[in-house]
Amino acid sequence: MAVAGCTKCIKYMLFFFNFIFWLAGGVILAVALWLRHDSQTSNLLILQFEGQQAPGTFYISVYILIAVGAVMMLVGFLGCYGAIQESQCLLGTFFFFLIILFACEVAAAMWGFMNRDTISKELINFYDSAYIKAVDVSGSPSKDSAIKVLEAFHSTLNCCGKGDDTALFKQVIGTLCPRKTQEDVLKPQSCHYKLDELFSEKLYLIGLAALVVAVIMIFEMIFTMVLCCGIRNSPGVY
């Protein structure tokens, strides 16, 4: 027998929140795919120097987002169907998946908080290792590949040097750094600063998406419990 009164209102509110949850899953999946194929990050993270790939810690969070977005769309559909059908079994399964997702999101948030500076620091260290080889006057065999790595950083981020560049680097600044305007030549932006800025913006976007999803999930868990209790207490349900 169908629920009535306030419980019926909860039923449609749960359906609405599940629909929003399903849409949020699609948005997160789309954002994650955009982050994975964003030209700035992709151009930097595919670089290789002295047989080592550029650090790809950033992609760990992106792959987690892709998985979360796909699961959210599946779980959101399950919640919508369970709410409309007033099925305690489907709603119970939906609640179980919500708990798992919420726990994973908390774990991912803790990992992201502890590693919030790691991503940019790893790439800064990678940049610095190429920087040292590029200004080496002893004729290092890896100097040409180091110069190519620096050129990729400079052209992608529109930056130049570390901000406290040596006299040796300033001698080759004209060939290594993009020069779009005279101001770029006189006051080039530090690549250390640009790397921090690049990944801070993207991690902020990921954190904002996670916060919105967490709020939706809390409301969904509450509504799911209330609706299950309402279905159980409805006349004709034993």
Q: How does this structure look, described?
A:
- The chain is rod-shaped and about 85 Å long.
- The protein has 238 residues and is mostly helical.
- It is 77% helix and 2% strand.
- The protein is built from nine helices and two strands, in the order ααββααααααα.
- A hairpin with a 2-residue loop joins β1 and β2 (52-53).
- It has helices at residues 6-37, 39-45, 57-85, 88-114, 118-134, 143-157, 167-176, 182-186, 191-232, and strands spanning 48-49, 52-53.
- The longest helix has 42 residues, at 191-232.
- A two-stranded antiparallel ribbon has the order 1-2.
- The relative contact order is 0.16.
- The model has no long low-confidence stretch (mean pLDDT 78).
H/E element order: HHEEHHHHHHH
The structural class is: mainly alpha
Number of separate strands: 2
Number of helices: 9
List low-pLDDT spans.
Answer: none
Strand content: under 5%
